Amino acid sequence: MVYQEELIKKLKNHTARIGVIGLGYVGLPLALTYSKAGFRVLGFDTDDQKVQTLNAGGTYIERIAKEEIGLAREFGFEATSNFEEASLCDALIICVPTPLTQHREPDISFIVNTMDSICPYLRAGQVISLESTTYPGTTEEELLPKIESSSLIVGQDTFLVYSPEREDPGNPKYETRNIPKVVGGLTKACLKVGTELYEQAIETVVPVTSTKTAEMTKLLENIHRAVNIGLVNEMKLVADRMGIDIFEVIDAAATKPFGFTPYYPGPGLGGHCIPIDPYYLTWKARAYGINTRFIELSGEINRAMPEFVLKKLIDGLNQQGKALNGSKILIIGISYKKNVDDMRESPSVEIMELIQKKGGVLSYSDPHVPVFPKMRQHHFNLESIPLTESNLSMHDAVIIATDHEKIDYVKIKENSQLIIDTRGKYRDPAAHIVSA
Predict the structure, then answer these.
(1) Domain hosting residue 340, numbered range
(2) Rounded Cα–Cα distance for residues 159 and 7 (Å)
(3) Residue 222 lies inside a defined structural domain of this protein
(4) How many domains is the chain partitioned into structurally?
(5) Within the chain, how many helices (H) and strands (E) appear?
(6) Is the domain of 275 the same as that of 363?
(7) Whole-structure pTM value
(8) Is it the case that residue 193 has pLDDT exceeding 90?
(9) Residue 268 falls within a domain, yes or no?
(10) Is there a single domain that holds both residue 185 and residue 39?
């Protein structure tokens, strides 16, 4: 076990070089965390614009300041799109996207392509860690054969682990460093090396018995949230039909000091995890002859929420004698959650597409997203407009889609013709405010 001992020694004395593949909302914070811990870090990304921005000391994620990049650069952080440099790293941590196909099946092509890119440059004495959310068995079924095709023996001269990312953008209390890290290894030796890898930069490491256990852990965490949000979204539909304020109901129920955890409804699910992860498990479960009906039902409810918002908009306009076709609609907040610039799987975008198909004329305002970003499946040639009195009053309807704290909700209430409130920002009844 010479390679294991040498690698652990390098990790403990921080002479190991850390490679992070995928410099997005997960990979870049992780790279900076290792840099702050005293490691030389090499970041990999296929997007040359990201690479150039980082090497120039810039940033493209709102919550990461240029000063953080500059400090990391002083400690040796570099970015590259040249995967040959994977051979220079003692640890390679993979943080690439795992989206769904059009048929809501797992798309692990980013993982597969990453492995194909680095496999020619793997060597003995390295640890490879996958952090991308995926179905149980991915590490063993997809990564292991590719590594072994390089004539490396996993558990002896190279080490393979799975450690699910747990980023929560916009959370002021938790960052990469202080979020407990689950780690599963393919062998005991792999687990020992993987635990050592993360203990050098993360405050709490939680070892589990296998990569499959670690993969399933991540899915359970997000399925738990998806199912509970699906439940409360369904409760919102019932309460709306009965003329009951669901937000008042939730606040009242939350006063119970035990047995209840408040979840809040919204216009749909966003972020890279919660709308996607459940389908990774349902797809894999079918291979074992199990239909995950409960999980899939919550997904159906959550996916239907943008249509509910559209109906509320159409009804609200009709009451004012207007049709959606040709009406000017202003979307307030287009990121997937408040106080961040993260657009991944944002329900606001789906609402925008539904409105556009019905002939609505769209604008948006978001203090965190000045220009509608380049996305894999969606595009609007739009820029954020300021929330002035004239901009508000000129629109036939305003939709509160994401409730950023920087937004002046009083100004919106006082100057809008019609407000579709999907976030419960307005609790006092008003003729021009429609709860959605």
Answers:
(1) 233-435
(2) 10
(3) no
(4) 2
(5) 15, 13
(6) yes
(7) 0.92
(8) yes
(9) yes
(10) yes
